[in-house]
Amino acid sequence: MDSVIYNHSTDTSQINEENKILKESVSKLKEELDRFRVPPLMVSEVRNVFGKNAIIRLPNGNQFYVNVLEECDKIVSGDVVLVDQKNLAIIKKVTITKVFDIESFVIVEKPKVSWKDIGGLDVQAQEIKEVVELPLKKPELFKKVGITPPKGILLYGDPGTGKTLLAKAVASATNSTFIEVVGSELVQKFIGEGAKMVKEIFELARKKSPSIVFIDELDALAAKRVEIGTSGEREVNRTFMQLLAEIDGFKPLDNVKIVGATNRKDILDPAVVRPGRLDRLIHIPIPKNEARLEILKIHSKSMDLSKDVDLRNLAAIMENLNGAEIKAVCTEAGYFAIRDNRTNVTRKDFLKAIDKVRQGEEAEGEDYLRMFG
Predict the structure, then answer these.
(1) In this structure, what is the dihedral angle of CA atoms 262, 265, 271, 272, given to the nearest 10 degrees?
(2) What pairing do the DSSP bridges indicate for beta strands 53-57 and 152-156?
(3) CATH T-level fold of 102-283
(4) Which of 73, 74, 94, 71 is closest to 82 using CA atoms?
(5) Nearest to residue 335, comparing CAs of 313, 303, 360, 359?
(6) Model confidence at 192, in pLDDT bands (50, 70, 90)?
(7) Cβ atoms 42, 85 nearer than 8 A
């Protein structure tokens, strides 16, 4: 009998212990659920403080006059704070660094592209050498003559024609740091911070001078300004104004040059290409027959070409292909040879490669028509 009582007592003790653990688990789960039900706080920037009130700026650019909770630490203009989403009252001050690791957001390199790697753009290359390379290499020459070179240039033309390659070649020729920025990414990725990013990019350029700041897709930042309505449009305008301020802050003979690139010169704001800014405009065209031959020779020089390969004839066949597509033809021709377990590349490989690249071009055109046609 005593044994039965003892076992019953032990069972009750175990059950009570399990109940206690379960209750604690349920309590923790309820706390967790309650935390999930609390709406998230919004991060904002303090613009001005007036005692127990303040003006804050939200990430979308809108500003509000709000209350500051008594429990909140002392705040000053420029602080980052957490605000309630419903009434925008300031709840807590947070420490957030506003300094970007700018080098992780832009491409910074010392290019190894030489002028010999560029074909069919001799006139454009010569102009870039005069406008960008010469002032960096021989600034005293300009001082003696008494003229000031442009601060920067704008390369415009269809995609794949060699704008980036030209910018890298001049950076390599002058042993400059090449800083590449993509305008559309700057606008899309850093909403509310675009102007700060632009400022820090140019600070980096000064620090690493001589340097060339290459802004690809410039039209994403510098399109003609229309009525500024949405917060996104206001942000783009702030970023653009900062870009103009940075360009204006350079002297013509500084060790920093700006090279812009665009496929849409027609939509650029005149402010960015007026005298004293990117005022030297250089058109980069689709290569003509002789230019195509030069490009083809450059990209096929390391290939084991069969005797039936006539580069001049192939260049004539590749009418309307740009430099990037001619390079793609050479790569595809090499792949056709590899698939047949060959090292030499034949005319047939090139013809199949041209067809493949053209089909890809047509598919892109059809996609464009479906989207915008």
Answers:
(1) 20
(2) unpaired
(3) Rossmann fold (3.40.50)
(4) 94
(5) 303
(6) low
(7) yes
Q: Which CATH superfamily is domain 42-94 in?
A: Nucleic acid-binding proteins (2.40.50.140)
Which stretches within 38-147 are classed as H helix?
Answer: 122-128, 134-137, 139-145
Identify the pLDDT of residue 101: 57
Number of residues that make up the chain:
373
The residue with tokens 């007026």 is 274
Grouping H, G, I as helix, E, B as strand and the rest as coil, residue 324 is helix
Q: Which CATH architecture does the domain made up of 289-372 adopt? A: Orthogonal Bundle (1.10)
Q: Does residue 324 have a pLDDT over 80?
A: yes
* 3-class SS of residue 155: strand
Judge contact between 150 and 185, C-beta under 8 A.
Answer: no
User: Residue with structure tokens 């390199």?
Assistant: 109
Residues contacting residue 153 through CB under 8 Å, at least 6 positions apart? 128, 131, 132, 257, 258, 259, 260, 278, 280, 281, 282
Domain ranges of the chain: 1-38, 42-94, 102-283, 289-372
Give every CB contact of residue 341 below 8 A, 6+ residues apart in sequence: none
- Residue 210, preceding peptide bond in cis (omega within 30° of 0): yes
- The SS3 of residue 329 is helix
Query: Considering the entire predicted model, what is its pTM?
Result: 0.68
pLDDT value, residue 297: 92
The reported pLDDT for the residue numbered 330 is: 93
Distances from the Cα of 5 to the Cα of 16, 18, 209, angstroms: 17, 20, 89
* Mean pLDDT value across residues 163-176: 90
User: What pLDDT, on the 0 to 100 scale, is given for residue 70?
Assistant: 82
Residues 6+ apart with CB under 8 A from 334: 303, 345, 349
